[in-house]
Design goal:
By secondary structure, this protein is mainly alpha-helical. The protein is 74% helix and 4% strand. A hairpin with a 2-residue loop joins β1 and β2.
């Protein structure tokens, strides 16, 4: 197994650690962070999520730079992204920090596009992530990070950046999903 795939697997392995930190009632207390009260577990969880998210860029960089792109990596990388984002969004719903209907839309799009990719792969077509999909992923990461950090940076000036970022992520998620299906509608038109 090459280095990019190991990095991708590390992203998947960080998910249970993130869940443990965020959901098990540790008594680490609260902390003051840039004027906002937040459980320290949310801060630690945010750091784990942000670190895990950056591994997506790192594994892709190494895979492309050193020509280590593999079929396993093409499968694992988007799976790791979807698992990490879905886990974080579900945690945010459980903690009352994100609207469940937005999270359902985002996760539904992820399942739909994964299904579309599976159909295309069955026909010998590989759908690489396009720029809109990459923007969607980073919009989701920014929104989740802001929510996990309780909007500490922008709360001081009264700007609900975390909620705005979640709405932006939702818009890009729906837009990129529509784009994937529109560009690959031939699968449904030609199906018997």
């Amino acid at each position: 197994m090459n280095l990019p795939n190991k990095i991708t697997i590390s992203r998947i392995l960080l998910i249970p650690i993130f869940l443990l930190v965020m959901l098990v009632p540790f008594s680490w207390g609260d902390m003051r962070f840039l004027g906002a009260d937040m459980p320290i577990t949310h801060f630690v969880g945010a750091l784990i999520f942000i670190f895990a998210s950056t591994t997506d860029w790192v594994d892709g960089y190494y895979a492309r730079k050193y020509n280590m792109v593999t079929n396993l990596g093409k499968f694992l990388d988007p799976l790791a992204d979807k698992l990490l984002v879905s886990a974080a969004l579900i945690v945010l719903v459980q903690l009352g920090m994100a609207a469940s209907w937005i999270v359902i839309l985002i996760i539904s799009r992820e399942f739909a596009v994964t299904g579309l990719r599976a159909i295309l792969a069955g026909e010998g077509e590989i759908v690489a992530a396009n720029m809109l999909g990459k923007i969607k992923t980073w919009a989701q990461i920014v929104a989740i990070s802001a929510l996990l950090l309780h909007n500490t940076i922008f709360e001081m000036i009264g700007l609900p950046f975390d909620l705005i970022a979640l709405w932006v992520a939702m818009v890009f998620t729906i837009w990129s999903g529509w784009d994937y299906f529109n560009k690959n509608k031939h699968v449904f038109i030609n199906s018997k």
